């Protein structure tokens, strides 16, 4: 089969187009969104980002990248943690704004987390960011304290692995946090699409060739919000290879404290370099150490700007910046590298990227979850 006959490939490639659609969608609803948000950000509501798996990682990224916005102090707590340990995360005497991310909106944990917050908190409000108008989340959004943001139907990825749904929901949340200035954001979104297109057109063939090499481990490293991107990257490659490639993620500094033991000659390392020069000094120090002490299958650098540091070696530098000023959206294109790696490695080892789980261990919508009432 040709690449474009797979849903997963088309969903990876459509992301720049989806981001423009997402921007227009948010722009058209600016007044409604701004009115809703202002009710809760100005009234001491605890803001919690929630989701499961890839949808949870969106919150981990937002927690860092939006730390200087109206959402400062917001916390990322997965639906899976809210269900089992809600008392550790919510104060029933403090009002909560729960921002839920869901591709299908049919995950049992999404419904369970919402029920728990509504049950144990005196005052609650909800924002549902989802890709499926037929999902349970969208169908149950007709309440005064709930804002539904339904993304373009194409983002409801048909492949098992979340690709355009992840990046589109992340972008939506970033635009919502910046809603007061959303009418000035088009140049940044256009730049974002150009960066993604550069990765997809220039680097995809090289990534495909590297994925033909034999390896059994991949490590993704990132700092700050890019650690969240590394987390999603880890899952993407591991899902698309049905666990045959064992993947790990960490921060550059954290990796030295034990996790670095994973490196062997069958390892691919992917470095998601920060655009902050101060942070980058710590990152390049680790890479130089690895270059000196370890033999690996391949090293891939992903960065907006060239890494001009002596002692840094790599098999591929994915440089995708357009020379514009930094923005809160800059973290998004990094994930495309892992999406492409996962797609091509899945094909290389004889799997179908749309349904890679031969074992049946994972599925597009999680199965087997039973929600219990509290004792």
UniProtKB/TrEMBL annotation:
GO molecular function, one term: carbohydrate derivative binding
Membrane-spanning residues: none
GO terms under biological process: carbohydrate derivative metabolic process
Signal peptide: none
The SIS domain, residue ranges: 33-187, 206-356
Parts forming coiled coils: none
Protein name as catalogued: SIS domain-containing protein
Protein species of origin: Parabacteroides gordonii MS-1 = DSM 23371
């Amino acid at each position: 089969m040709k690449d474009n006959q797979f849903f997963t490939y088309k969903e990876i490639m459509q992301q720049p187009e989806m981001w423009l659609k997402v921007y227009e969608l948010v722009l058209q609803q600016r007044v409604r969104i701004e009115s809703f948000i202002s009710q809760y950000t100005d009234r001491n509501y605890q803001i919690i980002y929630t989701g499961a798996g890839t949808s949870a990682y969106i919150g981990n990224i937002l927690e860092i990248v939006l730390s200087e916005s109206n959402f400062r102090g917001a916390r990322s707590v997965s639906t899976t943690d809210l269900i089992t340990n809600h008392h550790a995360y919510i104060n029933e005497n403090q009002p909560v704004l729960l921002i839920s991310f869901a591709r299908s909106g049919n995950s049992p944990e999404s419904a369970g987390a919402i029920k728990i917050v509504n049950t144990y908190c005196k005052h609650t409000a909800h924002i549902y960011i989802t890709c499926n108008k037929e999902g349970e989340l969208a169908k149950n959004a007709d309440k005064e304290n709930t804002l539904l943001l339904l993304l373009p139907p194409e983002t409801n990825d048909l492949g098992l692995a979340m690709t355009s749904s992840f990046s589109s929901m992340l972008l939506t949340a970033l635009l919502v946090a910046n809603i007061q200035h959303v009418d000035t954001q088009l140049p940044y979104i256009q730049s974002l699409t150009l960066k993604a297109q550069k990765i997809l057109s220039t680097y995809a063939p090289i990534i495909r060739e590297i994925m033909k090499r034999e390896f059994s481990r991949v490590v993704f490293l990132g700092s700050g919000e890019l650690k969240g991107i590394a987390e999603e990257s880890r899952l993407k490659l591991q899902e698309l290879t049905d666990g045959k490639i064992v993947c790990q993620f960490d921060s550059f500094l954290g990796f030295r404290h034990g996790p670095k033991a994973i490196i062997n000659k069958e390892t691919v390392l992917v470095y998601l370099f920060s655009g902050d020069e101060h942070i980058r000094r710590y990152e390049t120090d680790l890479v130089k150490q690895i270059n000196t002490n370890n033999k690996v299958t391949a090293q891939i650098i992903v960065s907006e700007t060239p890494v001009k540091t002596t002692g840094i070696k790599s098999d591929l530098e994915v440089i995708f910046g357009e020379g514009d000023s930094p923005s809160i959206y800059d973290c998004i294109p990094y994930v495309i590298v892992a999406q492409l790696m996962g797609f091509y490695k899945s094909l290389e080892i004889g799997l179908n990227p749309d349904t890679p789980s031969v074992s049946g261990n994972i599925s597009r919508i999680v199965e087997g979850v039973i929600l219990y009432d509290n004792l």
